[in-house]
């Protein structure tokens, strides 16, 4: 019995180490703050560890854990939604610790993008992050968000439209693409 527990603990540890950077990036994009992202990932992995027997035997453990993260994020901010989505001043947005292999980290004006992303409603932000940063299919994003594919399409389209309407962000993207 002890050997099985050790094997399961080792399997979870391997999973956690391998997925930590990607989970942190997703959490940061959802929360907009480094410390909040760390808390969200830790809480998510805590729940995953407790249920690792079920999570580890799932068809796609990473998708399972991502769904747990999104549900935790939604629950934490459901009551404080207006305060959470309010635009932050320059001192209110904590910078992410850059991942050197992350192409997004190489963008010229990352702060403008993160500030714009923080202004989106939670569901639109989730759809945009999962579809465009995590590069999930619409079906995978729908499973992670617990909604229909049509809802993902709608929220992603609305979120992208709002991001494109932000003048400073549109200029940054245009300048960055023509260098």
TrEMBL record:
- Per its record, what are the GO molecular function terms? DNA binding; sigma factor activity
Q: Using the record's annotation, list all stretches that form the RNA polymerase sigma factor 70 region 4 type domain.
A: 110-163
Residue ranges occupied by any RNA polymerase sigma-70 region domain in the UniProt entry: 21-80
Is GTP-binding among this UniProt entry's keywords?
no
Give the top-rank taxon of the lineage listed in the UniProt record for this protein: Bacteria
Query: What keyword terms does UniProt attach to this protein?
Result: DNA-binding, Sigma factor, Transcription, Transcription regulation
**The keyword ATP-binding appears for this protein:** no
Q: What are the BP-aspect GO terms?
A: DNA-templated transcription initiation
Family of this protein: Belongs to the sigma-70 factor family. ECF subfamily.
This protein's name: RNA polymerase subunit sigma-24
Organism for this UniProt entry: Streptomyces bungoensis
What lineage, starting at the top, does this entry show?
Answer: Bacteria, Bacillati, Actinomycetota, Actinomycetes, Kitasatosporales
């Amino acid at each position: 019995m002890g050997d099985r527990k050790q094997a399961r603990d080792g399997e979870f540890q391997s999973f956690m180490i391998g997925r930590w950077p990607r989970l942190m990036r997703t959490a940061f994009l959802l929360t907009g703050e480094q410390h909040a992202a760390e808390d969200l990932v830790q809480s998510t992995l805590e729940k995953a560890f407790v249920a690792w027997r079920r999570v580890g035997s799932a068809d796609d453990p990473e998708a399972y854990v991502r769904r747990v993260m999104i549900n935790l994020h939604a629950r934490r901010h459901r009551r404080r939604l207006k305060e959470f989505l309010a635009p932050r001043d320059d001192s209110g947005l904590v910078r992410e610790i850059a991942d050197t292999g992350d192409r997004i980290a190489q963008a010229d004006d990352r702060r403008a993008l993160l500030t714009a992303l923080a202004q989106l409603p939670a569901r639109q932000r989730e759809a945009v992050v999962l579809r465009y940063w995590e590069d999930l299919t619409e079906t995978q994003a729908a499973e992670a968000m617990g909604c229909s594919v049509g809802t993902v399409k709608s929220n992603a389209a609305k979120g992208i439209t709002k991001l494109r309407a932000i003048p400073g962000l549109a200029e940054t993207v245009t300048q960055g693409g023509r260098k």
